[in-house]
């Protein structure tokens, strides 16, 4: 219960960062997607279920205030949390490149799916312009922000973990030989 409440507070905090600070630190009207970082990191740190939980509520917050199609972002964020959870306990937490690659893939995928839903279906076919002007700069900016928040989110996951032990890479089986 303590973990769920802390996750909801963190989602609310990242939403406030998306609404307020993102406009202040935007470069050429491109701002980082703060809310897409959460399902990736929680899926990687705590598994598929936590990634989907955080993805659902982060997506609902995003849909309530940014999206015209309610539920679309929540569904995409749930999938992002689920697929990030596949790598739970597969890699050491010190390996920051894996979650960073997950954030890049997730943000690119979300941007491309948003392009298909919002522009391509309305016969706006200039994919190159949309990629170079909106998707790729946001991916880079979100990756930089995720580098800054990686360790604080990991620390929060560690202190709210309920007795679960992360599988140690390279640990030898200590059974009867």
Automatic annotation (TrEMBL):
Membrane spanning residue stretches: 34-57, 64-84, 96-122, 134-153
Pfam families: MreD (PF04093)
Location of this chain's protein in the cell: Cell membrane
The keyword NAD is assigned to this record: no
Topology term for the membrane: Multi-pass membrane protein
InterPro entries: Cell_shape_determining_MreD
The keyword Cell membrane is assigned to this record: yes
Annotated GO biological process: regulation of cell shape
Keywords: Cell membrane, Cell shape, Membrane, Transmembrane, Transmembrane helix
GO (cellular component) term, any one: plasma membrane
Family, similarity comment: Belongs to the MreD family.
Protein name in UniProt: Uncharacterized protein
Highest classification ranks of the organism: Bacteria, Bacillati, Bacillota, Clostridia, Lachnospirales
């Amino acid at each position: 219960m303590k973990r769920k409440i802390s996750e909801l507070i963190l989602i609310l905090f990242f939403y406030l960062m998306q609404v307020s600070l993102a406009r202040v630190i935007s470069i050429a009207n491109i701002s980082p997607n703060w809310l897409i970082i959460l399902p990736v990191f929680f899926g990687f740190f705590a598994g598929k279920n936590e990634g989907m939980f955080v993805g659902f509520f982060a997506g609902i917050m995003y849909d309530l205030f940014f999206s015209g199609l309610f539920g679309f972002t929540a569904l995409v964020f749930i999938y992002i949390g689920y697929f990030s959870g596949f790598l739970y306990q597969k890699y050491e937490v010190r390996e920051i490149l894996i979650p960073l690659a997950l954030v890049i893939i997730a943000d690119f995928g979300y941007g491309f799916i948003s392009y298909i839903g919002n522009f391509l279906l309305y016969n706006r076919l200039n994919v190159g312009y949309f990629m170079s002007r909106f998707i790729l700069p946001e991916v880079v900016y979100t990756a930089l922000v995720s580098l800054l928040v990686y360790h604080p989110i990991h620390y929060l996951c560690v202190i709210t973990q309920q007795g679960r032990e992360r599988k140690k890479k390279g640990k030898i089986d200590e059974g009867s030989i």
